[in-house]
């Protein structure tokens, strides 16, 4: 068919010569060519030119539209469609194409900050690969709200509003692949697929909101009564296979409950944020008179509070909760009843 630029120049020459039929047929061939090469922007551009040349060339206009949509549908990332099947099944093929080709793909390493609480952001993130942590900071306290993975999305709390500020922070816990939709790009495709935004909004509304996550975390922290007592914690960070991932370190015990434990450690703000969501093995030893009740447990970090002198209070939820009798026994040891 020759070089695309030469073909477009030939089309323009045919139009100047009044040979519209030949120009239309060449436009159709070029549209099919670019669609087959997945150059959808160019194919759409030429189809718009086709409509401009002859809006009554209905067969050609419809045919090229179908060719472009079919090529888009064929080229969509099949793994992405499988991960998000429960969402895409509610979209028409045209809406699915419009959404997918409006998004950009991003890949990030572990410990990469996607956005921080307080930033202005109107983007919706679809997770295809990796693990991410969403956390909320209030005053000097940082709470892990949720660990996200493939099939989760985030950013919906600010996406549908203009001039909205992020209410949480998100950081990658492992290398991650995301598809990202800008609100401006969704506004553009709404002209062709006006029902898409309402479907997307409805899907997001069916998920647990950030406000619900924050509320639930505060409620969870009030469920179990915490017992304050002195002791030491030997902390070992674990990998996904629950094998040691770093050198163990010592920390000061703050309190314990049936659901978890809190300890004090020296670290930096950046490193403390990285602890959120991490699995830890903790060997807990108590001072007298509770020394005989030492224990070892595994749990995950759910909150971090900054303290003076570069110290941080780390809150860990046990994988397996303690029996209430254990806390009762500890309490009886440190607060013996009067005879």
The overall average pLDDT, rounded, is: 87
CATH level-3 fold name of the largest domain: Jelly Rolls
Q: Largest beta sheet, briefly?
A: 6 strands, antiparallel, barrel
Which class do the helix and strand fractions yield? Answer: alpha+beta
Fourth-tier CATH superfamily name of the largest domain? Jelly Rolls
In the CATH classification, which architecture of the largest domain applies?
Sandwich
Oligomer: single chain
Query: What's the helix-strand series?
Result: HHHHHHHEEEEEEHEEHHHEEEEHEEEH
CATH class categorisation of the largest domain: Mainly Beta
CA-based shape:
elongated
- Number of domains in the coordinates? 3
H/I helix tally = 13
Structural features, described:
The chain has 339 residues and is of the alpha+beta class. The chain has three domains: 4-75; 78-217, Jelly Rolls; 224-334, predicted glycosyltransferase like domains (Thrombin, subunit H, Beta Barrel). It is 39% helix and 29% strand. The protein has 13 helices and 15 strands. The protein has helices at residues 4-16, 20-36, 40-53, 58-75, 78-83, 85-88, 93-100, 156-159, 183-189, 196-205, 210-223, 269-275, 324-334; strands at 104-108, 113-115, 123-129, 132-138, 141-148, 153-154, 169-172, 176-182, 227-228, 231-238, 249-256, 260-266, 279-286, 295-307, 311-318. Strands 10-11-12-15-14-13 form a six-stranded antiparallel β-barrel. Strands 1-8-3-6 form a four-stranded antiparallel sheet. Strand 14 (295-307) and strand 15 (311-318) form a beta hairpin. Helix 1 (4-16) runs antiparallel to helix 2 (20-36), helix 2 packs parallel to helix 4 (58-75) and helix 3 runs antiparallel to helix 4 (58-75). The longest helix has 18 residues, at 58-75. The chain is elongated and about 100 Å long. It starts with a helix and ends in a 5-residue tail after the last helix.
